[in-house]
Amino acid sequence: MTNKIFIIPAVDIKDKKCVQLVQGIPGSEQVIIENPLEVAKDWERKGASILHIIDLDGAFGDKEKNREIIKKIAHEIKVPVQMGGGIRTKEDAVKLLEIGIDKVILGTVAIENPEIVEELSQEFGSERIIVALDSKDSKVVVKGWSEKTTKSAPEFAKMFEKKGAGSILFTNVDFEGLLKGFDTTPLLELLNTVDIPIIYSGGVTSIDDIKKLSETDVYGVVVGSALYKGKIDFKKALETIVSEHHNLSKSPIL
Protein backbone atom coordinates (compact mmCIF):
# COMPACT_ATOMS: atom_id res chain seq x y z
CA MET A 1 0.00 0.00 0.00
CA THR A 2 1.44 3.36 -0.99
CA ASN A 3 0.87 6.29 1.34
CA LYS A 4 0.57 9.86 0.03
CA ILE A 5 3.45 11.50 1.89
CA PHE A 6 4.59 15.11 1.99
CA ILE A 7 8.03 15.81 0.49
CA ILE A 8 9.35 18.67 2.61
CA PRO A 9 12.33 20.70 1.30
CA ALA A 10 14.85 21.78 3.94
CA VAL A 11 16.08 25.36 4.04
CA ASP A 12 18.95 25.44 6.55
CA ILE A 13 20.14 28.98 7.28
CA LYS A 14 23.66 29.92 8.37
CA ASP A 15 25.32 33.34 8.09
CA LYS A 16 22.15 34.56 6.31
CA LYS A 17 22.67 31.98 3.55
CA CYS A 18 21.01 28.67 2.69
CA VAL A 19 23.50 25.85 3.38
CA GLN A 20 23.73 22.08 3.66
CA LEU A 21 26.07 20.60 6.25
CA VAL A 22 27.40 17.02 6.45
CA GLN A 23 26.28 15.31 9.68
CA GLY A 24 25.43 18.73 11.12
CA ILE A 25 29.10 19.67 11.50
CA PRO A 26 29.92 23.41 11.27
CA GLY A 27 32.40 24.08 8.48
CA SER A 28 31.24 21.10 6.42
CA GLU A 29 29.06 23.19 4.08
CA GLN A 30 28.61 21.46 0.72
CA VAL A 31 25.96 23.82 -0.59
CA ILE A 32 25.88 27.60 -0.06
CA ILE A 33 23.15 29.72 -1.70
CA GLU A 34 22.49 33.42 -1.19
CA ASN A 35 19.05 34.63 -0.05
CA PRO A 36 17.20 31.87 1.87
CA LEU A 37 13.89 33.71 1.38
CA GLU A 38 14.17 33.31 -2.39
CA VAL A 39 15.14 29.66 -1.93
CA ALA A 40 12.02 29.13 0.19
CA LYS A 41 9.83 30.91 -2.38
CA ASP A 42 11.30 28.76 -5.13
CA TRP A 43 10.34 25.54 -3.31
CA GLU A 44 6.86 26.95 -2.80
CA ARG A 45 6.59 27.75 -6.51
CA LYS A 46 7.69 24.23 -7.37
CA GLY A 47 4.83 22.75 -5.36
CA ALA A 48 6.05 22.26 -1.78
CA SER A 49 3.13 21.89 0.63
CA ILE A 50 5.34 22.36 3.72
CA LEU A 51 8.78 23.93 4.26
CA HIS A 52 11.36 22.89 6.86
CA ILE A 53 13.49 25.78 8.16
CA ILE A 54 16.45 25.31 10.50
CA ASP A 55 18.32 28.28 12.00
CA LEU A 56 21.80 26.79 12.26
CA ASP A 57 23.26 29.93 13.81
CA GLY A 58 20.53 29.70 16.44
CA ALA A 59 21.42 26.07 17.05
CA PHE A 60 25.05 27.08 17.48
CA GLY A 61 24.16 29.90 19.90
CA ASP A 62 23.37 33.06 17.87
CA LYS A 63 19.59 33.47 17.75
CA GLU A 64 19.60 37.01 16.35
CA LYS A 65 21.75 36.65 13.21
CA ASN A 66 18.98 35.28 10.97
CA ARG A 67 15.95 36.71 12.81
CA GLU A 68 14.92 39.17 10.08
CA ILE A 69 15.17 36.52 7.36
CA ILE A 70 13.04 34.17 9.45
CA LYS A 71 10.40 36.87 9.95
CA LYS A 72 10.28 37.49 6.20
CA ILE A 73 9.88 33.78 5.49
CA ALA A 74 7.07 33.55 8.07
CA HIS A 75 5.27 36.52 6.50
CA GLU A 76 5.85 35.89 2.79
CA ILE A 77 5.60 32.10 2.45
CA LYS A 78 2.00 30.96 2.12
CA VAL A 79 2.48 27.22 2.77
CA PRO A 80 3.00 26.00 6.37
CA VAL A 81 6.51 26.47 7.74
CA GLN A 82 7.97 24.22 10.43
CA MET A 83 11.06 25.59 12.12
CA GLY A 84 13.73 24.63 14.62
CA GLY A 85 17.20 25.65 15.69
CA GLY A 86 18.10 27.69 18.75
CA ILE A 87 14.87 27.05 20.66
CA ARG A 88 16.30 26.84 24.17
CA THR A 89 13.31 28.04 26.19
CA LYS A 90 9.54 28.20 26.05
CA GLU A 91 9.89 31.94 25.32
CA ASP A 92 11.99 31.20 22.23
CA ALA A 93 9.23 28.94 20.90
CA VAL A 94 6.51 31.47 21.71
CA LYS A 95 8.36 34.23 19.81
CA LEU A 96 8.49 32.08 16.66
CA LEU A 97 4.84 31.05 16.92
CA GLU A 98 3.81 34.68 17.43
CA ILE A 99 5.71 35.97 14.36
CA GLY A 100 3.87 33.47 12.18
CA ILE A 101 5.92 30.27 12.13
CA ASP A 102 3.25 27.56 11.83
CA LYS A 103 5.01 24.80 13.77
CA VAL A 104 8.01 24.85 16.09
CA ILE A 105 10.44 21.96 16.29
CA LEU A 106 11.59 21.30 19.86
CA GLY A 107 14.75 19.22 20.27
CA THR A 108 17.07 19.32 23.27
CA VAL A 109 14.75 21.67 25.16
CA ALA A 110 11.94 19.07 25.03
CA ILE A 111 14.20 16.26 26.23
CA GLU A 112 15.52 18.38 29.11
CA ASN A 113 12.15 19.86 30.06
CA PRO A 114 9.22 17.79 28.73
CA GLU A 115 6.69 20.04 30.48
CA ILE A 116 7.40 22.72 27.84
CA VAL A 117 5.74 20.45 25.26
CA GLU A 118 2.63 20.16 27.40
CA GLU A 119 2.47 23.90 28.10
CA LEU A 120 2.95 24.95 24.47
CA SER A 121 0.47 22.39 23.11
CA GLN A 122 -2.16 23.60 25.58
CA GLU A 123 -1.55 27.28 24.72
CA PHE A 124 -1.10 27.06 20.95
CA GLY A 125 -2.57 23.67 19.99
CA SER A 126 -0.86 20.29 19.60
CA GLU A 127 -0.72 20.62 15.83
CA ARG A 128 1.80 23.48 16.16
CA ILE A 129 4.26 21.49 18.29
CA ILE A 130 6.77 19.06 16.75
CA VAL A 131 9.27 17.17 18.91
CA ALA A 132 12.54 16.27 17.20
CA LEU A 133 13.98 12.89 18.11
CA ASP A 134 17.44 12.41 16.62
CA SER A 135 18.62 8.82 16.85
CA LYS A 136 22.21 7.56 16.73
CA ASP A 137 23.09 3.93 17.47
CA SER A 138 19.46 3.41 18.56
CA LYS A 139 19.56 6.11 21.26
CA VAL A 140 18.28 9.68 21.10
CA VAL A 141 21.07 12.27 20.97
CA VAL A 142 20.88 15.92 22.02
CA LYS A 143 22.92 19.15 21.97
CA GLY A 144 23.79 19.05 18.29
CA TRP A 145 24.08 15.24 18.36
CA SER A 146 27.02 15.51 20.79
CA GLU A 147 25.40 13.83 23.81
CA LYS A 148 23.65 10.47 23.91
CA THR A 149 20.64 9.83 26.16
CA THR A 150 19.70 6.48 27.66
CA LYS A 151 16.37 6.17 25.83
CA SER A 152 15.35 5.18 22.32
CA ALA A 153 13.16 7.25 20.01
CA PRO A 154 10.06 5.06 20.62
CA GLU A 155 10.43 5.48 24.38
CA PHE A 156 10.59 9.27 24.11
CA ALA A 157 7.86 9.38 21.46
CA LYS A 158 5.39 7.59 23.74
CA MET A 159 6.05 10.11 26.48
CA PHE A 160 5.73 13.15 24.19
CA GLU A 161 2.52 11.84 22.64
CA LYS A 162 1.05 11.86 26.16
CA LYS A 163 2.42 15.37 26.74
CA GLY A 164 0.50 16.65 23.71
CA ALA A 165 3.05 16.78 20.90
CA GLY A 166 1.28 17.01 17.56
CA SER A 167 3.96 15.15 15.61
CA ILE A 168 7.48 13.74 15.78
CA LEU A 169 10.41 14.63 13.52
CA PHE A 170 12.60 11.53 13.49
CA THR A 171 16.13 12.00 12.20
CA ASN A 172 18.27 8.95 11.60
CA VAL A 173 21.63 10.57 12.39
CA ASP A 174 23.57 7.50 11.26
CA PHE A 175 22.60 8.39 7.68
CA GLU A 176 22.00 12.16 7.80
CA GLY A 177 23.75 14.17 5.08
CA LEU A 178 25.73 11.21 3.74
CA LEU A 179 23.58 10.59 0.63
CA LYS A 180 23.89 6.83 1.07
CA GLY A 181 20.29 5.78 1.67
CA PHE A 182 18.97 4.53 5.01
CA ASP A 183 17.51 1.62 6.97
CA THR A 184 13.75 1.82 7.65
CA THR A 185 13.82 -0.52 10.68
CA PRO A 186 14.08 2.23 13.36
CA LEU A 187 11.36 4.23 11.61
CA LEU A 188 8.99 1.26 11.46
CA GLU A 189 9.51 0.61 15.15
CA LEU A 190 8.63 4.23 15.88
CA LEU A 191 5.55 4.16 13.63
CA ASN A 192 4.31 1.09 15.49
CA THR A 193 4.70 2.84 18.85
CA VAL A 194 2.66 6.05 18.49
CA ASP A 195 -0.42 7.28 16.66
CA ILE A 196 0.70 10.88 16.01
CA PRO A 197 2.24 11.75 12.62
CA ILE A 198 5.93 10.95 12.06
CA ILE A 199 8.12 13.02 9.73
CA TYR A 200 11.31 11.29 8.62
CA SER A 201 14.74 12.79 7.90
CA GLY A 202 18.14 11.29 7.16
CA GLY A 203 19.86 9.73 4.17
CA VAL A 204 17.12 10.24 1.58
CA THR A 205 19.07 10.23 -1.68
CA SER A 206 16.74 9.16 -4.50
CA ILE A 207 13.14 8.99 -5.63
CA ASP A 208 13.35 5.27 -4.83
CA ASP A 209 14.10 6.20 -1.22
CA ILE A 210 10.96 8.36 -1.18
CA LYS A 211 8.97 5.47 -2.69
CA LYS A 212 10.32 3.22 0.06
CA LEU A 213 9.05 5.67 2.67
CA SER A 214 5.69 5.95 0.92
CA GLU A 215 5.21 2.23 1.61
CA THR A 216 5.17 3.02 5.34
CA ASP A 217 2.72 5.13 7.34
CA VAL A 218 5.12 8.07 7.56
CA TYR A 219 3.47 11.49 7.21
CA GLY A 220 6.29 13.31 5.48
CA VAL A 221 9.97 13.30 4.61
CA VAL A 222 12.43 16.17 4.93
CA VAL A 223 14.88 16.28 2.04
CA GLY A 224 17.92 18.55 1.90
CA SER A 225 21.24 17.66 0.28
CA ALA A 226 19.73 15.36 -2.36
CA LEU A 227 17.55 18.19 -3.68
CA TYR A 228 20.30 20.79 -3.71
CA LYS A 229 22.80 18.45 -5.37
CA GLY A 230 20.33 17.38 -8.05
CA LYS A 231 20.07 13.74 -6.96
CA ILE A 232 16.32 14.19 -6.57
CA ASP A 233 14.25 16.28 -8.97
CA PHE A 234 11.55 17.79 -6.74
CA LYS A 235 8.82 18.03 -9.36
CA LYS A 236 9.44 14.47 -10.54
CA ALA A 237 9.36 13.24 -6.96
CA LEU A 238 6.00 14.93 -6.40
CA GLU A 239 4.62 13.51 -9.64
CA THR A 240 5.87 10.01 -8.81
CA ILE A 241 4.29 9.95 -5.37
CA VAL A 242 0.95 11.35 -6.59
CA SER A 243 0.92 8.96 -9.56
CA GLU A 244 1.76 5.87 -7.49
CA HIS A 245 -0.75 6.76 -4.79
CA HIS A 246 -3.46 7.39 -7.38
CA ASN A 247 -2.85 4.10 -9.19
CA LEU A 248 -2.71 1.96 -6.06
CA SER A 249 -5.67 3.62 -4.38
CA LYS A 250 -8.06 3.01 -7.28
CA SER A 251 -10.70 0.42 -6.54
CA PRO A 252 -10.69 -2.47 -9.01
CA ILE A 253 -13.66 -2.58 -11.40
CA LEU A 254 -15.60 -5.76 -10.70
Low-confidence stretches: 246-254
Tally of domains: 1
The counted number of beta strands is 12
Given helix and strand content, the structural type is alpha/beta
Helix percentage range: 25-40%
CATH topology: TIM Barrel
Q: What proportion of the residues form beta strands (DSSP E)?
A: 15-25%
Please give the order of strands in the largest beta sheet: 1-4-5-6-7-10-11-12
What overall form do the CA principal axes indicate? globular
- Could you name the CATH class? Alpha Beta
Number of helical segments with 4 or more residues: 11
CATH architecture: Alpha-Beta Barrel
Main beta-sheet annotation: 8 strands, parallel, barrel
In CATH terms, the superfamily is: Aldolase class I
Assembly annotation: single chain
Summary of the model, kept short:
The chain has 254 residues and is of the alpha/beta class.
What this model shows, in words?
By secondary structure, this protein is of the alpha/beta class. It has a single domain (6-243), classed as TIM Barrel (Alpha-Beta Barrel), CATH 3.20.20.70. It is 37% helix and 23% strand. It is built from 11 helices and 12 strands. It has helices at 36-45, 56-59, 67-76, 90-99, 108-112, 115-124, 153-163, 185-191, 207-214, 225-228, 234-249, and strands spanning 6-14, 17-20, 31-34, 51-55, 81-84, 103-106, 129-136, 139-142, 147-148, 167-172, 198-201, 220-223. Strands 1-4-5-6-7-10-11-12 form an 8-stranded parallel β-barrel, surrounded by 7 helices. Strand 5, helix 4 and strand 6 (103-106) form a beta-alpha-beta unit. Helix 1 (36-45) packs parallel to helix 3 and helix 9 (207-214) runs parallel beside helix 11 (234-249). The longest helix is centred in the C-terminal third of the chain and has 16 residues, at 234-249. The chain is globular, with a radius of gyration of 17 Å. Mean pLDDT is 89; it is low at 246-254.
